[in-house]
Amino acid sequence: MIKKVAMRRAGGSVTVTIPKDMADRYQMAAGDEAFIVETDRGILLTTLDPAFETAMAVYERASEQYRNALRELAR
């Protein structure tokens, strides 16, 4: 879904308001953290921590590589 929003000045920054229906859909509330990621296609606003995604990718590679050892340790 694409929605057009206006940018407003707030001190030395620029702010954007997230429409209520989108905030509700993604369980976002005032005070929550979000991440702004610069991509080759523009700016991505996400509630998912990019560092967590990187850590999960490392875990998935390691769990596949050491699957048998982890199975033995789990006994």
Summarize the structure in words.
With 75 residues, this protein is an alpha+beta fold. Helices cover 39% and strands 24% of the residues. It is built from 3 helices and 4 strands; from the N terminus they run ββαββαα. A two-stranded antiparallel ribbon has the order 1-2. It has a two-stranded antiparallel sheet with strand order 3-4. β3 (35-39) and β4 (42-46) form a beta hairpin. The radius of gyration is 19 Å and the shape is elongated. It starts with 6 loop residues before the first strand and ends with a helix. The model has no long low-confidence stretch (mean pLDDT 89).
Regions with little confidence, pLDDT below 50 for 5+ residues: none
Order of helices and strands: EEHEEHH
Arithmetic mean of pLDDT = 89
Q: Please tally the β strands and state the result.
A: 4
Give the distance, in angstroms, between the N- and C-terminal Cα atoms: 47 Å
What shape does the CA trace take?
Answer: elongated
Largest sheet: 2 strands, antiparallel
Q: What proportion of the residues is helical, as a percent range?
A: 25-40%
Order of the strands making up the biggest sheet: 1-2
Portion in beta strands: 15-25%
Rg from Cα:
19 Å
* Count of helical stretches: 3
Oligomer: single chain
The helix-and-strand class reads alpha+beta
Outline of this structure?
The protein has 75 residues and is α+β, with helices and mostly antiparallel strands.
Helix/strand layout:
Elements: E1 7-10, E2 13-16, H1 20-25, E3 35-39, E4 42-46, H2 50-65, H3 67-73
Antiparallel strand pairs: 1-2, 3-4
